[in-house]
Write a structure and sequence with these properties.
The structure is a single chain. This protein is about 75% helix and about 0% strand. It is mainly α. Helix 3 crosses helix 9 and helix 6 packs parallel to helix 8. It is globular, with a radius of gyration of 17 Å.
């Protein structure tokens, strides 16, 4: 039942990510955290999301903003270097709470936080903070969206470029948590991952077709509300775990 649940979650969340370029990873991280230790959930999430995002980047290859991606990589490399000297792992209650609070950044007024990934110094900052948050909370899509929300480009370019950046961020996360996960011997079998990977690709492909039917206005509106509702559910879940004394 656990395997079936995770495989279904893989397909559904890949589809959602294929449409909105985010939200799917947020849901999948929560699903994995329900049934796996934190380190293992981080590694499995990173693998599945790398496949999903990588395939999405391939599907929209001609739309990737390579200049923004290159600058993002500089910030991401800086975060990876800093994380190499740190060691920590969140408890499940706090993991859910942080996951739930991440989407709140998309509601900040522009006068408080006005970012644009098309600007070089913003793209570097994006790579640094998004990669760092991805390692801490497992996901960083809502924060990444803040950097792209005001970027004046086609929705397909936004989805494609974000997908490429997330492959990098998830790669850093896998490298950070792989040893604790292997030590705990709690990773799913290779056979499970071999089934999950094609499902992630199928879900992403289906989502890409749905994306083509949406307008830019619909895309931005639904993205904001979906991640906010999910975030609220996660905060409640984390608080209940804290009150119940679960770790």
């Amino acid at each position: 039942m656990t395997a079936a649940f995770l495989l279904l979650a893989t397909f559904v969340t890949a589809f959602i990510s294929g449409v909105f370029g985010m939200a799917g990873g947020l849901i999948l991280m929560g699903a994995l955290a329900l049934v796996l230790p934190v380190a293992s959930a981080m590694v499995v999430h990173g693998i599945i999301q790398s496949v999903s995002n990588g395939w999405r980047a391939v599907l929209h290859l001609k739309w990737i903003d390579w200049r923004t991606l290159a600058i993002y990589l500089a910030g991401s490399a800086a975060a990876a270097g800093l994380l190499a000297f740190a060691s920590f792992e969140l408890s499940k209650p706090w993991l859910f709470i942080i996951l739930g609070l991440v989407p709140a950044v998309i509601w900040l007024p522009k006068r408080v936080l006005h970012l644009d990934a098309a600007r070089p110094h913003h793209a570097v900052a994006c790579g640094f903070v998004v990669t760092g948050l991805n390692v801490v909370a497992g996901v960083s899509g809502p924060l990444l969206d803040v950097f792209f929300a005001d970027t004046q480009t086609d929705r397909r370019s936004i989805v494609a470029t974000k997908a490429a950046t997330q492959v990098v961020s998830h790669g850093v996360k896998i490298a950070y948590y792989i040893l604790p996960a292997l030590t705990a011997a709690s990773l799913p079998s290779v056979q499970w991952l071999l089934v999950a990977a094609p499902l992630a690709i199928l879900g992403t492909t289906a989502g890409a077709r749905f994306l083509a039917l949406m307008s830019d206005v619909q895309f931005r509106k639904w993205t904001k509300w979906i991640v906010s509702v999910i975030g609220g559910v996660y905060v409640v879940r984390g608080v209940l775990l804290l009150v119940g004394g679960s770790a």
